[in-house]
Write a structure and sequence with these properties.
The chain is of the alpha/beta class. 51% of the residues lie in helices and 14% in strands. Helix 1 packs across helix 4, helix 7 crosses helix 9 and helix 8 packs parallel to helix 10.
Length: 299
């Protein structure tokens, strides 16, 4: 399911939920005016399930200009929480009001459960058209704590369990690779992530450093468009099959004058130094042993 499809599904579900809450409130509270209040901005706290941490300042400024000219066309939604009001929807409108120096904002006070708040936070985050599968995965992880299981979360969002676990596949990536991916998350989708996760599950602890280095190299190739995301696993398999031969090619001779007395070889996991014993005196051997002992001596 694409980000656009999830966005449309969540928007529809939340519209239905909001309508249901409004109708239920009106049935028990005939005084409709009590539902709409002007609330002090200082009494409003953020939605704890809103994954987006940054907002486009230019968009906020443009919205503030529109509000200043036309007024607030749609109130924000909040729920009462202790002595404060917790924002449900309308964070951009609230920020625009704050930028205008307003002290109070028109608000619709409704009742809403944590799970619905979490879904709304995800839905608002999906307003970005370029939202990647990696960002959706982060949003799902952010809100999953309010659901009893991933299955319940999948049902609430409206996607099947198989697709849900594709989103969660990103969590199997090494931290070094996740750091790179967070800068350009659109380069790898959930299907490619699932393939990479399956491959990583077969890698031994001994080979993992080679694979992690391979992922970093693959990222460079992705950026330069010399590799596509669906070929990353093949690239990693190739990396695992060649390190020994590469190490031999990278062997450096150690010479004494024109005479070869040994070699230096660096692989992904080891640095191997070989010296021909016949070219070392007993004193040189002791000096070498003392040098290495001192280098790695524990403090």
């Amino acid at each position: 399911m694409a980000a656009k499809d999830i966005k449309e599904l969540l928007t529809r579900k939340l519209a239905e939920n909001n309508q249901r809450h409004a109708e239920a409130t009106q049935e028990t509270e005939l005084d409709i005016g009590r539902q709409y209040q002007k609330i002090a901005i200082t009494d409003i706290v953020p939605n704890p399930y809103q994954p987006r941490q940054t907002f486009n300042e230019a968009d906020i400024a443009e919205l503030a200009s529109s509000i200043n000219e036309l007024g607030l066309l749609q109130p924000i939604s909040v729920r009462k929480k202790d002595n404060k009001y917790q924002l449900i929807a309308g964070e951009r409108r609230l920020k625009a009001y704050q930028s205008l120096g307003r002290t109070h904002i028109e608000s619709l006070v409704i009742s809403m459960e944590d799970a619905e708040m979490a879904l709304l936070g995800l839905a608002e985050n999906l307003q970005r058209e370029d939202l990647s599968d990696f960002e959706i995965a982060q949003a799902l992880r952010h809100i999953e704590t309010v659901f009893s299981s991933k299955t319940k979360l999948a049902e609430a969002v409206g996607i099947n369990r198989e697709d849900m676990y594709r989103y969660y596949a990103f969590e199997a990536f090494p931290e070094s690779f996740l750091s790179l991916l967070s800068k350009k998350p659109q380069l790898i989708g959930r299907s490619a992530a699932a393939d990479i996760k399956r491959f990583l599950s077969t890698v031994t602890d001994e080979d993992m450093p080679i694979v992690e280095q391979g992922l970093v190299s693959a990222w460079t190739l992705l950026l330069s468009e010399h590799l596509t995301q669906n070929k990353i696993v093949d690239y990693l398999k190739n990396q695992l099959s060649t390190p020994k031969s590469q190490a031999i090619e990278n062997k450096t001779k150690i010479k004494q004058g024109r005479r070869v007395v040994g070699s230096w070889q660096q692989t992904t996991n080891d640095v191997v130094i070989k010296l021909k014993a016949k070219y070392l005196s007993d004193e040189q051997k002791l000096q070498l042993q003392d040098f290495l002992t001192t280098m790695f001596k524990q403090e």
